[in-house]
Each structure stands twice: as C-alpha cells, then as structure tokens.
Amino acid sequence: QVQLVESGGGLVQPGGSLRLACAASGSIFSISNMGWYRQAPAKQRELVAFIPSGGRTNYADSVKGRFIISKDSAKSTVYLQMNSLKPEDTAVYYCTATIKTSFRSPFDDYWGQGTQVTVSS
After folding, report:
1. How far apart are CA 7 and CA 22, in angstroms?
2. Which parts of the chain fold into alpha helices (H)?
C-alpha cells in the first residue's frame, strides 16, 4: 500500500508565494518520476511540473520562471515552490509518483488526494 500526502495549500494574494510538499509512504521499493498536476474548476487536469529520477525537470509554459520543483529522495518527498502567483494558478494541485512496491513489481502511478490553492485578493 502506497500513500501520497500533500500539504501546503491555502489562500494567497496575487504576487505571493506558497510551497507545496508531497510525501510518499508505505511499501516503496523504488520511485521513478515525481510530479505535480492541477485542475481548475471546469477545466481538465494539466501537468504543472515533473522531475524524473535522473533527468531534467520539466515545466508547463504557464509556470516557467515562477515555479520550482524539487525532491528529497531520502524522504520520498517532492516539493513545488510557487512564486509570483496569479489568480489563474487557482486550482486543486495533485502530486503523482511512479513507484515500484517490490523488486518484481512493475512501476505504477500513484496520486495524492489534492490540495487547494487559491490566489485572490
């Protein structure tokens, strides 16, 4: 059993900053990619940023230069530092991780429950 638990969401004024965290726990043998998606009301879920195990980070064009994704492999935790926030960043943010639960198991995608980020004055 694997769980991803997000934290750090909330209400912030335009131009402000928030830092999201997502900790993976449970039966984890290996973690590959970790990332963040978001879903605004009446919109499809979209990729925000992801960080592969051994490659370069990737960002949606809408957040480049404002958001920074990082991870602490020892803690199985991924972070999303969000700066210069805009009202259009308002959404539920979900973390995701690609995880093997044992040596013989395949990699599977797991999702957190989501955390609300609201940017408003």
Report:
1. 6
2. none
Separation CA 63–CA 88 (nearest Å):
11
Cα-flanking dihedrals φ and ψ of residue 74, to 5°? -65, -30
Residue 6, CA distances (Å) to 102, 105, 109 in order: 23, 25, 16
What are the φ/ψ torsions at residue 88 (nearest 5 degrees)? -70, -5
Amino acid at 29: F
The whole-angstrom separation of Cα 61 and Cα 75 is: 28
Residue 55 has pLDDT above 80, yes or no: no
Q: Give the H/E segment covering residue 48.
A: strand 46-51
CA dist list (Å): 83 to 45, 62, 63: 21, 12, 9
Compute the distance between CA of residue 95 and CA of residue 38 in angstroms, rounded to an integer.
9
Mean pLDDT of 29-41: 95
Tens digits of residue pLDDT in 74-86: 999 999 999 999 9
Structure tokens, 31: 């973690």
Measure the CA–CA gap between 57 and 43, rounded to whole angstroms.
24
